[in-house]
């Protein structure tokens, strides 16, 4: 659902232990902003409890007074951070260590259903041990474990990017999959629907990191070795400057590096025939669901995903992209096939436009509201 926010008697609480960015520069910043706005657009009056600890405390006191005065909230929806809740301060010093969970306990006693989106379990993977010093892990890992214990006591529903998180110690939670949503760009989707692309070239777009779990080396090498294939890589400038030496030997005139925010990507999506999400195999990506992989269908742009990624089967089943083994030769083979079969790109483009309508942020907010309202009725 789109359009102006509705005036409604329906109320909910949106809880996020960090400031919500007005101009997100990453998927982790974008998601809470889009979910908050989506709840408003589907007709909820939302009491937003976000910010650093002091600000959250002030907002919590207002909501507590509302509840004590008889205000009815349908549910509380929260989004977790990649860091432990107790460290949710600008300097990571836990000045207000327990009040977040005390508020959750208050809401639970007030019979308000509570759902929380658990972002990921990065801290459980080998790559976390390889990138975070041991003395920091001695603090963060026990605090992540503390978060999970409190969630189990207080949360009714744990929302997760993919159900594969069940395999990492979460089987005892009532769990629902809540992948990222997308925002429909009508103008660009209409442009894509007209199908007036140059069928003699293939324009690819990769948005994301260039190291660690988001290692796109093979897709860059594959694109560079294919004639009439042009790849734009959008990655943070500081990140690129740190890691570009890894790619210097495979870059050529068909590869363009840009550094843009999400709000500046419209023209790049408009010109892209296909987006890319092909990462080298790693255990973490097997259960992740990157926001960029859904953002692309909001622009009517099909996507190539590596077969190791959790969302690959859904991309194929939804008819809005292709899955491929994340090695250079397999990627090249697919790119050459698509150059020779432009009608296949057309088919997947239409599939992406249709999939976007079913995967908006408003759809995600409706899903959350429906599940949590049912909890409240039990």
Fold and architecture overview:
By secondary structure, this protein is of the alpha/beta class. It has 14 helices and twelve strands. It has helices at about 25-40, 55-70, 100-110, 125-130, 135-155, 185-195, 215-225, 235-245, 265-270, 290-300, 310-315, 330-340, 340-355, 360-375, and strands spanning about 10-15, 45-50, 75-80, 115, 155-160, 175, 200-205, 230-235, 255-260, 275, 305, 320-325. The strands form two sheets. Strands 2-1-3-4-5-6 form a six-stranded parallel beta sheet. A six-stranded parallel beta sheet has the order 9-8-7-10-11-12, with helices on both faces. Strand 1, helix 1 (about 25-40) and strand 2 (about 45-50) form a beta-alpha-beta unit.
Principal-axes geometry comes out as globular
Largest sheet: 6 strands, parallel
User: What is the rounded distance between the termini?
Assistant: 28 Å
Helix coverage percent: 40-55%
What's the tally of helices? 14
Question: What is the structural class?
Answer: alpha/beta
Strand content range: 5-15%
* Major β-sheet strand ordering: 2-1-3-4-5-6
Helix/strand order, N-terminal first? EHEHEHEHHEEHEHEHEHEHEHEHHH
Unreliable residue runs: 1-6
Number of strands: 12
Gyration radius from CA atoms, angstroms: 22 Å
């Amino acid at each position: 659902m789109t359009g102006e926010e509705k005036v409604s008697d329906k109320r909910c609480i949106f809880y996020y232990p960090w400031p919500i960015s007005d101009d997100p520069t990453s998927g982790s910043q974008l998601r809470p902003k889009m979910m908050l706005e989506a709840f408003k657009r589907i007709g909820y009056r939302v009491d937003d409890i976000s910010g650093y600890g002091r600000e959250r405390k002030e907002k919590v006191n207002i909501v507590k007074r509302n509840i004590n005065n008889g205000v009815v909230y349908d549910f509380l929806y929260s989004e977790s951070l990649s860091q432990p809740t107790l460290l949710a301060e600008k300097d990571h010093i836990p000045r207000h260590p327990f009040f977040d969970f005390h508020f959750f306990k208050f809401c639970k006693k007030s019979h308000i259903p509570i759902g929380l989106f658990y972002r990921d379990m990065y801290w459980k993977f080998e790559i976390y041990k390889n990138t975070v010093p041991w003395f920091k892990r001695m603090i963060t890992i026990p605090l992540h474990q503390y978060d999970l214990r409190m969630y189990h006591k207080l949360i009714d529903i744990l929302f997760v990017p993919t159900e594969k998180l069940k395999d990492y110690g979460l089987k005892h939670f009532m769990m629902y999959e809540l992948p990222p949503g997308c925002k429909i760009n009508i103008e660009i989707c209409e442009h894509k629907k007209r199908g007036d692309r140059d069928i003699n070239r293939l324009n690819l777009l990769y948005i994301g990191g260039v190291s660690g779990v988001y290692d796109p080396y093979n897709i860059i090498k594959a694109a560079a070795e294919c004639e009439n294939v042009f790849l734009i890589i959008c990655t943070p400038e500081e990140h690129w400057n740190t890691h570009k030496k890894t790619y210097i030997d495979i870059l050529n005139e068909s590869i363009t590096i840009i550094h843009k925010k999400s709000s500046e990507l419209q023209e790049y999506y408009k010109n892209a025939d296909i987006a890319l999400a092909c990462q080298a195999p790693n255990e973490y990506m097997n259960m992740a669901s990157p926001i960029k992989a859904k953002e692309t269908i909001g622009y009517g742009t099909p996507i190539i995903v590596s077969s190791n990624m959790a969302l690959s089967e859904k991309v194929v089943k939804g008819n809005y992209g292709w899955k491929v083994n994340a090695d250079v030769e397999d990627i090249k083979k697919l790119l050459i096939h698509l150059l020779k079969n432009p009608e296949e790109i057309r088919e997947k483009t239409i599939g992406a436009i249709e999939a976007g309508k079913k995967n908006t942020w408003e759809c995600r907010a409706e899903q959350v509201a429906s599940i949590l309202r049912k909890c409240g009725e039990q």
